[in-house]
Structure formats: C-alpha cells, structure tokens
UniProtKB/TrEMBL annotation, chain A:
Domain of life: Bacteria
UniProt keywords, alphabetically: Cell membrane, Membrane, Transmembrane, Transmembrane helix, Transport
Pfam families for this protein: BPD_transp_1
Protein name: ABC transporter permease
Source species of the chain: Antarcticimicrobium sediminis
From TrEMBL, chain B:
Name of the protein this chain belongs to: ABC transporter permease
Main location: membrane
InterPro entries: Bact_Polyamine_Transport, MetI-like, MetI-like_sf
Family (UniProt): Belongs to the binding-protein-dependent transport system permease family. CysTW subfamily.
Lineage start: Bacteria, Pseudomonadati, Pseudomonadota, Alphaproteobacteria, Rhodobacterales
Database matches in Pfam families: BPD_transp_1
Segments forming domain ABC transmembrane type-1: 76-276
Ranges that cross the membrane: 12-38, 80-100, 112-136, 156-178, 207-226, 257-279
Topology class, membrane: Multi-pass membrane protein
Gene Ontology CC, one term: plasma membrane
Keyword Membrane annotated: yes
Native organism: Antarcticimicrobium sediminis
C-alpha cells in the first residue's frame, strides 16, 4: 500500500508541478532575465540594469506608473464604499426570495464580457451619447457635452467592472454574522455607528481584504477600460507595456515594465494583508 | 441596522433608494447596449431611427447582421474552441489538485498551495507577456539547437489556451476543492469495505459527488476564457477570438452590429450561468 500511495501522490503532483513550473515560474524567470539585458548590437546583449534606469529616468514612465497605482487605489476605495451598503442590505436586510434575486442581479453584468460593459459606458458617456442628449433635452446644457475620454470616465468604468468582486466576498462574510450579535450590540447601548465600527466591520474584515485585493489587481492590470474610456492624457501603465511589446518591439524595456507592475501589485497586496493581519490562504483559498 | 431593530423611516427610505440607484447603475450600460442593437441607424446612439432586426439578420450593405458577418462568426468559433480546451484542461488539473491538497500530506505542501494561488494576484497582462517571452525564447533555443521550427510556440491559439489556463486552473481548483472538503470520507471507506478497489471507489462514489462542482468549474472556466481579454491580447496570433475581434472594430468606430453581438453574448452567458445555478440547486 505504501508504494501505491506514493504512486498516487506522484500522479497527482505532476500536473500541478508542470502547470506551475512551465506556465508560471519559468516564464517569470525568463521575463526577469530579458528585463536585465541590454541590446548592444545586432543579436548581442549584455547584462545590465539599463532598462530599469530608463524606467526611473523617464518622467513619462514614472508618472504613468504612479498615476496608475494611485488611481487603482482610489478605484478600490470607491468600490468598497459603494459595495458595502449594498452587500449589507443583501446579507442582513433582505429576506428569502428578494435576497437571492438581488444577489443574482448583482452577478448578471459580470456574465458578459468586460468589452460589452465598457461599450455600454461609451454609448452612455460620449458626446453624441445618451446622457449628453438627456442633459440637452432637460435644458441643462446648451450644446453636446463630452463625458468620455477623461479620468472620471476611467474611474466609473473601473468601479463598474470590479463591483462583483467586492460584493460577493462581502455578502459571504456578512451573511455569517448572526443577527443576535448585532442586537446584542444595540442592547448594550451601542448606536448604529458604533455597532458598525465595533461589530460589523471587524467581522467583515476578511471579505473586505479579499475584495480589495481582487479589485485592486483588476484595476491595476486593466487595459481595456483605460484604453477605451480614457483620453490622450490618461495613459495607463498596461498601455505602456503593450506598446513596448507589440508596437515598438522593445521586449527588454517591456519586460522591465512588466516586472515593475508585478512588484507594485505584490507589494500593495502584501502590505494590505500585513496591515489587516490576514494571509493569502485565508482570504483567497 | 437590521429589520428587528426599529429605525427612523427617513433612514430606511433613503437606504432603499440607494439600493435602487445602485441597481440602476448596474443595469444602465447593459440596457443601452441591448436597446441600440435594434436601432435602424449606422450608429449606436440617439436619435432613435426606428426598430429593426437588420443588425441580426440583415444580408446587404450597409446593414450586415451578425448571422451574415463571416469574420465575427469565425471569431465566435475561435473563442468557443479556445474556451472548450481551457475548460477541459482546467477541470482536469483542478480535480487532480483538489485530491492532492485534500488527501495527501507532504513536505512543501503549504508553499505549493500558496504558489497555486499566486496566478490570482498576477496581473493578466504580466501573465501574458511572461508566457510570450518564455515561449519565444524556447522557440529560438530549439531553432538554434536543432533547426526546429515549433509553430505552437509562436503567438497563436496554443499560447492563448495555455495563457488562459495558467490562471483559470486556480479558480477551478478552488471550486472543486471546496466541494471535496465537504465530502464524507467514510462513504469511500464503505465502498472499500464492500470490496471495491481504491480507483473504483473514487470513480463510483467520490466523482459523482463532485460532479456538480466539476460542471460548475467547467462553466466558470468557459465563461472566463470566453471573456478574457488581457492575457489573450498579448498572446494572440492571426486567429482572433471574439473579444479581440470586437476590440479591433470598436477602435475603428462602432456600428449597432457590435450591440447585436453583445446582446447575443449576454443572452448566451446568462443562459449558461442560469443552467449552472439550477444544476447546483438541484443537488
């Protein structure tokens, strides 16, 4: 039986190891190696940090990097603020049929492609779009207004696109909070705010953290929404990566950019986990 | 605030209003996409020019409907092809991973579990470029070594499938592992006591129990693959899946044709999702 157990372990281990080494580990090591080389002639390379120097010395790259990070954090915060009351309503206020219906309705937009959602916002926000026409009809503006191609439009798109990934973990954690605990909070003299601060939010923390991590990741790595909804001045860091790789064919610099994005996202995710005392296994697994 | 705690009427009313506003916000972009699929005009915008089915069934210029638009139909086929492969691979590997983490204890298991979760926190575009870099380096290496030209390592559908699989596998593992966790292992032992060998016991007892989770994982993987954009964008070759094809058109300017495709997508994917929910509820 021992050898049989060993064989079973080996058989089950191999797909996992193949997947992780061939598709995750080796590609990232390769990407690191490519980012650390400098082209000095046709087909000739030397190891150097030149690509990273380029990244730090070119204001456009650095500014785009910081802007992407800040806007992703803002998008995460806004998504949390909008989603929390909704999740609380679904988990604690709504009952039975209504609850399942509301929860399902929250999921519906995310069964369709992000492209369709972004397209919807373009139809709404553009100069000839629905909202512009509505404002003219109501005589709130004289001519057509362009609401698309700016940072606010990107923000709307990002928040909309990531909403589900905040609502689902929040509803799940909030549902596990017994009503009696909330009632006890009120019985002990708490008001709405103190109950929220002392009972509801601490209980929902794992959900808040995992929601924030996923939303942050999705915003940071988003390409479609900033490209379609943003204007000429609202460059997103992923657009820089894409242009280095596909348009300029400068893979060395593109790989360095990719690594910077990876470092940024890992640092912020790690910081978020440390700050709240959670672990990746607990929040994601 | 919960229903059993009395609240001022104003507070309750404004809370309900907020929830209503939220759902309008959720529905608005999808509703406009759907409505303008029926606009008898070259642009998906106001004014309303009248109702038409042409963007679905139209056969002549300038209104060629979805069902007569070859490139779009072909890209839907490509997407479905990729999605089926990604789903099969992900469910297979996910099932194996679920058994591995549930049934075995071995050194390094904790590290492997965290590694297994990592693809969820790697941006999709980074996954895409890293696989692009690695595969083209492998292709160069093979060429230098033995003058082998391996087409599968060039941007194309194989890489798209592998790229999507690299993170969808994590999701399917989590979905299947969650159900295996709830499985009562004594049932399997009963089968063993009744004379079945281990493989038969797993096949006749455990796998049927896991079936709803496997179907669920398959549907989720299919939808994630069908909708994927970031990873696909970096790995795509000449055969564009639907999201990439639509993106290219959208950049050139949009006609209600795109609305029609989008509406069909919405119907199919919500149909799939509903089937999945009902399948899971029945068990």
């Amino acid at each position: 039986m021992r050898t049989q157990a060993k064989l079973g372990l080996f058989l089950l281990l191999s797909p996992l190891l193949l997947w992780l080494t061939l598709l995750i580990l080796i590609p990232h090591v390769d990407m690191l190696l490519v980012s650390l080389r400098e082209r000095i002639g046709v087909g000739q390379y030397q190891t150097s940090l030149a690509n990273y120097f380029t990244f730090f010395s070119e204001p456009l790259y650095l500014r785009t990097f910081v802007r992407t990070a800040v806007m992703s954090i803002m998008a995460t915060a806004i998504t949390l603020l909008i989603a929390f009351p909704v999740s609380y309503y679904i988990a604690k206020m709504a009952r039975g049929r209504v609850r399942s219906a509301l929860f399902l309705l929250c999921l519906v937009p995310f069964w369709v492609s992000e492209l369709v959602r972004t397209f919807g916002w373009m139809i709404l926000l553009r100069e000839t779009g629905v909202i512009s026409k509505l404002l003219q009809y109501l005589n709130l503006t004289d001519g057509p207004v362009e609401l698309l191609y700016n940072d606010a439009a990107i923000m709307v798109g990002l928040v909309y696109t990531s909403m589900l990934f905040m609502v689902v973990p929040l509803v799940t954690t909030l549902e596990s909070l017994p009503d009696e605990v909330i009632e006890a909070g009120y019985d002990l003299g708490g008001n709405g705010l103190s109950v929220l601060r002392e009972i509801v939010i601490p209980h929902a923390m794992p959900g808040i953290v995992s929601g924030c991590i996923v939303v942050f990741m999705l915003s940071l790595g988003n390409y479609l929404t900033p490209t379609m909804l943003g204007g000429k001045d609202s460059l997103w860091f992923t657009e820089l990566i894409y242009s280095q790789f596909i348009v300029r064919f400068n893979w060395e610099l593109g790989a360095a950019f990719g690594f910077m994005l990876l470092i940024l996202s890992s640092t912020i995710v790690w910081g978020m986990l440390k700050l709240t005392g959670q672990s990746l296994e607990k929040t994601m697994g | 605030m919960i229903p059993s705690i009395p609240q001022s009427r104003f507070l309750t009313a404004s809370y309900t209003a907020y929830i209503a506003l939220f759902f309008i916000f959720l529905a608005l972009p999808l509703v406009v996409v759907a409505v303008f699929a029926f606009n008898d005009s070259q642009f998906p915008s106001l004014p309303w020019e009248g109702f038409t089915w042409n963007w679905f069934f139209g056969a002549e210029r300038p209104m060629i409907g979805v069902f007569n638009e070859r490139p779009i139909l072909r890209s839907i086929g490509t997407s479905a092809f990729v999605a089926v492969f990604v789903s099969i691979l992900s469910v297979g590997v996910g099932l194996s991973n679920a058994f591995l983490f549930n049934r075995y204890r071995f050194p390094g298991q904790g590290v492997l579990y965290v590694l297994m979760l990592l693809p969820l926190v790697i941006p999709g575009i980074v996954l895409g470029i890293s696989i692009l870099v690695a595969s083209s380096r492998a292709a160069e290496g093979l060429w230098d070594l033995a003058q082998w030209d391996v087409d599968a390592l060039r941007p194309g559908l194989t890489l798209v499938i592998l790229g999507q699989f690299s993170f969808v596998a994590t999701i399917s593992t989590l979905v299947i592992a969650a159900r295996l966790q709830k499985f009562d292992q004594t049932l399997e032992e009963a089968a063993l006591n009744l004379g079945a060998n281990r493989l038969t016991a797993v096949r006749t007892v455990t796998l049927p129990y896991l079936m709803p989770a496997m179907i669920g994982a398959f549907v989720v993987a299919f939808l994630m693959s069908f909708e994927n954009f970031n990873t696909t964008l970096m790995l795509v070759g000449s055969d564009a899946p639907l999201t990439i094809a639509m993106f290219d058109r959208l950049k050139e300017g949009s006609t209600p044709l795109l609305n029609a495709v989008s509406l069909l997508l919405m119907l199919v994917s919500s149909g799939l999702a509903l089937i999945m929910i009902f399948a899971q509820r029945r068990t």
